[in-house]
Amino acid sequence: MIRRREFIALLGGAAAAWPVAARAQQPDRMRRIGLLASEPLPPVQRFSRKLQEHGYIEGRNVRVETRFAEGLDERYPVLAAELVALPVDLIVTWGTPAAVAAKGATSTTPIVMGAIGDPVSVGLVSNLARPEGNITGFATQNVELEGKRLELLKDLLPNVSRVGILGNASNPFFAVLWGKLRPMAERLNVALELFEVRNRAEITDALGRLERARPDGVLVSPDTLLLTKRSEICDSLNRSRLPTVYPFREYAPAGGLIIHAADVGVLFERSVSYVDRILKGTKPGDLPVQLATEFELIINLRTARALGLTISPMLLARADEVERFGGLEVDHQLVLGRCLHW
To answer: Considering the entire predicted model, what is its pTM?
Structure first.
Protein backbone atom coordinates (compact mmCIF):
# COMPACT_ATOMS: atom_id res chain seq x y z
CA MET A 1 0.00 0.00 0.00
CA ILE A 2 1.30 3.48 -0.83
CA ARG A 3 1.63 5.56 2.34
CA ARG A 4 1.54 9.31 2.73
CA ARG A 5 5.30 9.87 2.36
CA GLU A 6 5.41 7.81 -0.85
CA PHE A 7 2.34 9.60 -2.14
CA ILE A 8 4.00 13.01 -1.66
CA ALA A 9 7.08 11.69 -3.46
CA LEU A 10 4.85 10.65 -6.36
CA LEU A 11 3.39 14.15 -6.52
CA GLY A 12 6.80 15.77 -6.77
CA GLY A 13 8.73 13.17 -8.74
CA ALA A 14 7.93 14.45 -12.21
CA ALA A 15 8.46 18.13 -11.49
CA ALA A 16 12.03 18.30 -12.77
CA ALA A 17 11.08 16.96 -16.18
CA TRP A 18 7.93 19.05 -16.56
CA PRO A 19 7.83 21.02 -19.85
CA VAL A 20 8.87 24.66 -19.75
CA ALA A 21 5.60 25.71 -21.41
CA ALA A 22 3.58 24.10 -18.64
CA ARG A 23 5.74 25.76 -15.98
CA ALA A 24 5.09 29.13 -17.56
CA GLN A 25 1.36 28.63 -17.02
CA GLN A 26 1.68 27.81 -13.33
CA PRO A 27 -0.35 29.83 -10.79
CA ASP A 28 1.63 32.70 -9.28
CA ARG A 29 1.42 31.68 -5.61
CA MET A 30 1.55 28.59 -3.45
CA ARG A 31 -1.81 26.81 -3.12
CA ARG A 32 -2.79 24.28 -0.50
CA ILE A 33 -5.18 21.49 -1.49
CA GLY A 34 -6.58 19.11 1.12
CA LEU A 35 -7.30 15.55 0.04
CA LEU A 36 -9.61 13.51 2.26
CA ALA A 37 -10.00 9.81 1.40
CA SER A 38 -9.68 6.34 2.86
CA GLU A 39 -6.51 5.23 1.06
CA PRO A 40 -4.09 6.57 -1.59
CA LEU A 41 -5.50 4.28 -4.28
CA PRO A 42 -4.85 4.70 -8.05
CA PRO A 43 -7.66 7.26 -8.63
CA VAL A 44 -6.00 9.55 -6.10
CA GLN A 45 -2.67 9.10 -7.86
CA ARG A 46 -4.31 9.96 -11.19
CA PHE A 47 -5.59 13.15 -9.56
CA SER A 48 -2.02 14.14 -8.65
CA ARG A 49 -0.77 13.53 -12.18
CA LYS A 50 -3.61 15.56 -13.65
CA LEU A 51 -2.73 18.44 -11.33
CA GLN A 52 0.72 18.49 -12.92
CA GLU A 53 -0.84 18.69 -16.38
CA HIS A 54 -2.66 21.83 -15.22
CA GLY A 55 0.62 23.37 -14.08
CA TYR A 56 0.34 22.61 -10.35
CA ILE A 57 3.70 21.19 -9.26
CA GLU A 58 4.07 19.79 -5.75
CA GLY A 59 6.46 21.86 -3.66
CA ARG A 60 6.66 24.60 -6.28
CA ASN A 61 3.22 26.15 -6.42
CA VAL A 62 1.00 23.62 -4.66
CA ARG A 63 1.06 21.51 -1.53
CA VAL A 64 -1.35 18.60 -1.33
CA GLU A 65 -2.19 17.89 2.29
CA THR A 66 -3.40 14.29 2.42
CA ARG A 67 -5.52 12.80 5.17
CA PHE A 68 -6.36 9.09 4.90
CA ALA A 69 -8.87 7.50 7.28
CA GLU A 70 -7.61 3.98 6.41
CA GLY A 71 -11.03 2.40 6.86
CA LEU A 72 -11.84 4.19 10.12
CA ASP A 73 -14.79 6.36 9.09
CA GLU A 74 -15.03 7.86 12.57
CA ARG A 75 -11.74 9.66 11.88
CA TYR A 76 -13.12 11.72 8.99
CA PRO A 77 -14.53 14.63 11.08
CA VAL A 78 -11.20 15.04 12.89
CA LEU A 79 -9.20 14.83 9.66
CA ALA A 80 -11.50 17.31 7.92
CA ALA A 81 -11.14 19.74 10.83
CA GLU A 82 -7.34 19.41 10.58
CA LEU A 83 -7.43 20.42 6.91
CA VAL A 84 -9.67 23.42 7.59
CA ALA A 85 -7.41 24.54 10.44
CA LEU A 86 -4.19 24.46 8.36
CA PRO A 87 -5.84 26.17 6.39
CA VAL A 88 -6.21 24.73 2.89
CA ASP A 89 -7.60 26.61 -0.11
CA LEU A 90 -9.83 23.68 -1.12
CA ILE A 91 -10.71 20.12 -0.06
CA VAL A 92 -11.12 17.15 -2.42
CA THR A 93 -12.98 14.10 -1.08
CA TRP A 94 -13.68 10.47 -2.03
CA GLY A 95 -16.84 8.83 -0.73
CA THR A 96 -19.92 9.93 1.19
CA PRO A 97 -18.46 9.79 4.73
CA ALA A 98 -15.51 11.96 3.68
CA ALA A 99 -17.73 14.51 1.92
CA VAL A 100 -20.18 14.65 4.84
CA ALA A 101 -17.28 15.26 7.25
CA ALA A 102 -15.78 17.98 5.03
CA LYS A 103 -19.08 19.81 4.73
CA GLY A 104 -19.59 19.51 8.47
CA ALA A 105 -16.17 21.05 9.10
CA THR A 106 -16.60 24.16 6.95
CA SER A 107 -19.21 26.26 5.19
CA THR A 108 -16.63 28.49 3.50
CA THR A 109 -13.68 26.39 2.27
CA PRO A 110 -14.54 25.05 -1.21
CA ILE A 111 -15.12 21.29 -1.43
CA VAL A 112 -14.84 19.21 -4.61
CA MET A 113 -16.24 15.69 -4.35
CA GLY A 114 -13.85 13.65 -6.49
CA ALA A 115 -16.28 10.71 -6.39
CA ILE A 116 -19.51 10.20 -4.45
CA GLY A 117 -22.57 8.00 -4.88
CA ASP A 118 -25.48 10.46 -4.80
CA PRO A 119 -24.92 13.82 -3.08
CA VAL A 120 -28.57 14.90 -3.38
CA SER A 121 -30.09 11.92 -1.60
CA VAL A 122 -27.74 12.30 1.39
CA GLY A 123 -28.36 16.04 1.63
CA LEU A 124 -24.96 17.35 0.56
CA VAL A 125 -26.35 19.45 -2.29
CA SER A 126 -29.85 20.67 -3.05
CA ASN A 127 -29.70 19.71 -6.74
CA LEU A 128 -27.13 18.68 -9.30
CA ALA A 129 -27.45 21.62 -11.68
CA ARG A 130 -26.85 24.31 -9.05
CA PRO A 131 -25.45 22.74 -5.89
CA GLU A 132 -25.01 26.17 -4.25
CA GLY A 133 -22.99 26.65 -1.09
CA ASN A 134 -19.33 25.62 -0.97
CA ILE A 135 -19.54 22.13 -2.50
CA THR A 136 -19.66 20.53 -5.94
CA GLY A 137 -18.07 17.56 -7.67
CA PHE A 138 -18.64 14.27 -9.46
CA ALA A 139 -21.14 11.46 -8.81
CA THR A 140 -20.67 7.78 -9.66
CA GLN A 141 -24.39 7.00 -10.16
CA ASN A 142 -23.99 4.08 -7.74
CA VAL A 143 -27.73 3.90 -7.03
CA GLU A 144 -28.38 2.95 -10.65
CA LEU A 145 -25.24 0.82 -10.82
CA GLU A 146 -26.30 -1.28 -7.84
CA GLY A 147 -29.41 -2.29 -9.76
CA LYS A 148 -27.24 -3.23 -12.72
CA ARG A 149 -25.01 -5.29 -10.43
CA LEU A 150 -28.06 -7.22 -9.27
CA GLU A 151 -29.04 -7.78 -12.91
CA LEU A 152 -25.51 -9.04 -13.62
CA LEU A 153 -25.83 -11.55 -10.81
CA LYS A 154 -29.15 -12.68 -12.30
CA ASP A 155 -27.52 -13.01 -15.73
CA LEU A 156 -24.70 -15.06 -14.22
CA LEU A 157 -27.05 -17.22 -12.14
CA PRO A 158 -30.48 -17.31 -13.85
CA ASN A 159 -31.98 -19.31 -10.96
CA VAL A 160 -30.74 -16.98 -8.23
CA SER A 161 -33.42 -16.41 -5.57
CA ARG A 162 -31.48 -15.22 -2.49
CA VAL A 163 -28.85 -12.49 -2.60
CA GLY A 164 -26.78 -11.35 0.36
CA ILE A 165 -25.90 -7.66 0.62
CA LEU A 166 -22.69 -6.76 2.47
CA GLY A 167 -23.07 -3.11 3.43
CA ASN A 168 -21.74 -0.44 5.78
CA ALA A 169 -24.73 0.76 7.79
CA SER A 170 -22.75 3.72 9.18
CA ASN A 171 -22.47 5.19 5.67
CA PRO A 172 -25.58 7.38 5.07
CA PHE A 173 -25.52 6.42 1.39
CA PHE A 174 -26.20 2.78 2.21
CA ALA A 175 -29.74 3.53 3.43
CA VAL A 176 -30.44 5.22 0.08
CA LEU A 177 -28.99 2.26 -1.81
CA TRP A 178 -30.97 -0.27 0.21
CA GLY A 179 -34.23 1.60 -0.33
CA LYS A 180 -33.73 1.73 -4.10
CA LEU A 181 -32.55 -1.86 -4.47
CA ARG A 182 -35.47 -3.61 -2.77
CA PRO A 183 -38.13 -2.73 -5.42
CA MET A 184 -35.83 -3.94 -8.19
CA ALA A 185 -35.19 -7.18 -6.33
CA GLU A 186 -38.95 -7.72 -6.05
CA ARG A 187 -39.32 -7.26 -9.82
CA LEU A 188 -36.56 -9.84 -10.40
CA ASN A 189 -38.17 -12.19 -7.85
CA VAL A 190 -35.04 -12.11 -5.70
CA ALA A 191 -35.02 -12.01 -1.88
CA LEU A 192 -32.38 -9.73 -0.33
CA GLU A 193 -30.65 -10.54 2.95
CA LEU A 194 -28.70 -7.75 4.64
CA PHE A 195 -25.34 -8.40 6.30
CA GLU A 196 -24.35 -5.06 7.71
CA VAL A 197 -21.28 -3.73 9.44
CA ARG A 198 -20.62 -0.42 11.16
CA ASN A 199 -16.83 -0.52 11.31
CA ARG A 200 -13.86 -2.56 10.11
CA ALA A 201 -13.91 -4.79 13.18
CA GLU A 202 -17.33 -6.18 12.24
CA ILE A 203 -16.41 -7.27 8.71
CA THR A 204 -14.99 -10.68 9.68
CA ASP A 205 -18.14 -11.55 11.62
CA ALA A 206 -20.38 -10.44 8.74
CA LEU A 207 -18.41 -12.62 6.33
CA GLY A 208 -18.85 -15.56 8.68
CA ARG A 209 -22.60 -14.97 8.77
CA LEU A 210 -22.65 -14.85 4.98
CA GLU A 211 -20.86 -18.20 4.78
CA ARG A 212 -23.35 -19.80 7.16
CA ALA A 213 -26.39 -18.28 5.45
CA ARG A 214 -25.32 -19.58 2.00
CA PRO A 215 -27.20 -17.14 -0.27
CA ASP A 216 -27.09 -17.88 -3.99
CA GLY A 217 -24.95 -14.80 -4.59
CA VAL A 218 -23.64 -11.62 -2.96
CA LEU A 219 -23.43 -7.91 -3.72
CA VAL A 220 -20.74 -5.90 -1.94
CA SER A 221 -22.04 -2.35 -1.59
CA PRO A 222 -20.01 0.65 -2.81
CA ASP A 223 -18.24 1.85 0.30
CA THR A 224 -14.66 2.95 0.96
CA LEU A 225 -14.51 1.30 4.41
CA LEU A 226 -15.28 -2.09 2.85
CA LEU A 227 -12.81 -1.31 0.08
CA THR A 228 -9.95 -1.15 2.61
CA LYS A 229 -10.66 -4.81 3.47
CA ARG A 230 -11.01 -5.98 -0.13
CA SER A 231 -8.50 -8.83 0.16
CA GLU A 232 -10.20 -10.31 3.22
CA ILE A 233 -13.64 -9.89 1.65
CA CYS A 234 -12.69 -11.51 -1.67
CA ASP A 235 -10.76 -14.33 -0.01
CA SER A 236 -13.66 -15.16 2.31
CA LEU A 237 -16.40 -15.01 -0.32
CA ASN A 238 -14.36 -17.08 -2.77
CA ARG A 239 -13.48 -19.62 -0.08
CA SER A 240 -17.20 -19.82 0.75
CA ARG A 241 -17.89 -20.33 -2.98
CA LEU A 242 -20.29 -17.40 -3.07
CA PRO A 243 -20.50 -15.72 -6.51
CA THR A 244 -20.15 -11.98 -5.90
CA VAL A 245 -20.40 -8.71 -7.84
CA TYR A 246 -18.21 -5.86 -6.57
CA PRO A 247 -18.40 -2.04 -6.96
CA PHE A 248 -14.77 -0.91 -7.50
CA ARG A 249 -12.04 -2.06 -9.91
CA GLU A 250 -9.65 -2.45 -6.95
CA TYR A 251 -11.46 -5.68 -6.08
CA ALA A 252 -10.21 -7.30 -9.31
CA PRO A 253 -6.57 -7.90 -8.29
CA ALA A 254 -7.87 -9.15 -4.93
CA GLY A 255 -9.70 -11.95 -6.77
CA GLY A 256 -13.16 -10.41 -7.19
CA LEU A 257 -15.33 -12.43 -9.58
CA ILE A 258 -17.20 -9.60 -11.34
CA ILE A 259 -16.69 -5.87 -10.97
CA HIS A 260 -19.11 -3.32 -12.38
CA ALA A 261 -18.20 0.25 -11.54
CA ALA A 262 -17.92 3.83 -12.60
CA ASP A 263 -14.36 4.67 -13.64
CA VAL A 264 -13.42 6.59 -10.49
CA GLY A 265 -9.98 7.41 -11.88
CA VAL A 266 -11.60 9.35 -14.73
CA LEU A 267 -13.79 11.22 -12.24
CA PHE A 268 -10.76 12.28 -10.21
CA GLU A 269 -9.01 13.45 -13.35
CA ARG A 270 -12.09 15.48 -14.32
CA SER A 271 -12.24 16.95 -10.84
CA VAL A 272 -8.92 18.73 -11.43
CA SER A 273 -10.61 21.08 -13.89
CA TYR A 274 -13.02 22.11 -11.10
CA VAL A 275 -10.14 22.53 -8.67
CA ASP A 276 -8.36 24.76 -11.17
CA ARG A 277 -11.45 26.89 -11.84
CA ILE A 278 -12.25 27.30 -8.15
CA LEU A 279 -8.67 28.29 -7.31
CA LYS A 280 -8.96 30.91 -10.06
CA GLY A 281 -12.13 32.40 -8.56
CA THR A 282 -15.18 30.37 -9.65
CA LYS A 283 -17.66 29.65 -6.86
CA PRO A 284 -18.20 25.92 -6.22
CA GLY A 285 -21.98 26.36 -6.11
CA ASP A 286 -21.95 27.70 -9.67
CA LEU A 287 -20.41 24.47 -11.00
CA PRO A 288 -22.92 21.64 -11.61
CA VAL A 289 -22.34 18.25 -10.06
CA GLN A 290 -21.38 16.05 -12.99
CA LEU A 291 -22.35 12.39 -13.40
CA ALA A 292 -20.05 9.55 -14.37
CA THR A 293 -20.18 8.68 -18.06
CA GLU A 294 -17.54 5.93 -18.20
CA PHE A 295 -18.11 2.53 -16.62
CA GLU A 296 -16.21 -0.74 -16.37
CA LEU A 297 -17.24 -4.37 -16.36
CA ILE A 298 -14.41 -6.71 -15.36
CA ILE A 299 -14.70 -10.50 -15.25
CA ASN A 300 -12.14 -12.69 -13.50
CA LEU A 301 -12.09 -16.09 -15.22
CA ARG A 302 -9.66 -17.61 -12.72
CA THR A 303 -12.11 -16.94 -9.90
CA ALA A 304 -15.00 -18.21 -12.02
CA ARG A 305 -13.10 -21.43 -12.63
CA ALA A 306 -12.34 -21.84 -8.93
CA LEU A 307 -16.04 -21.37 -8.12
CA GLY A 308 -17.06 -23.90 -10.78
CA LEU A 309 -18.88 -21.26 -12.83
CA THR A 310 -19.13 -20.99 -16.59
CA ILE A 311 -19.39 -17.43 -17.86
CA SER A 312 -21.65 -17.27 -20.89
CA PRO A 313 -20.20 -15.86 -24.15
CA MET A 314 -22.92 -13.18 -24.08
CA LEU A 315 -21.81 -11.94 -20.65
CA LEU A 316 -18.15 -12.07 -21.68
CA ALA A 317 -18.96 -9.99 -24.76
CA ARG A 318 -20.33 -7.24 -22.53
CA ALA A 319 -17.11 -7.00 -20.52
CA ASP A 320 -14.56 -4.24 -20.83
CA GLU A 321 -11.83 -6.40 -19.38
CA VAL A 322 -11.44 -10.14 -18.99
CA GLU A 323 -8.71 -11.47 -16.72
CA ARG A 324 -7.30 -14.79 -17.95
CA PHE A 325 -4.76 -16.60 -15.81
CA GLY A 326 -2.47 -19.30 -17.17
CA GLY A 327 0.39 -20.29 -14.87
CA LEU A 328 1.93 -17.00 -13.80
CA GLU A 329 0.83 -15.09 -16.88
CA VAL A 330 -1.93 -12.51 -16.67
CA ASP A 331 -3.57 -11.29 -19.86
CA HIS A 332 -5.87 -8.25 -19.67
CA GLN A 333 -8.02 -8.33 -22.81
CA LEU A 334 -9.99 -5.24 -23.67
CA VAL A 335 -13.20 -6.53 -25.25
CA LEU A 336 -15.41 -3.51 -25.80
CA GLY A 337 -15.43 0.26 -25.29
CA ARG A 338 -15.60 1.47 -21.74
CA CYS A 339 -19.00 3.15 -21.77
CA LEU A 340 -21.69 0.67 -20.72
CA HIS A 341 -25.34 1.68 -20.81
CA TRP A 342 -27.39 -1.48 -20.89
So the answer is: 0.87
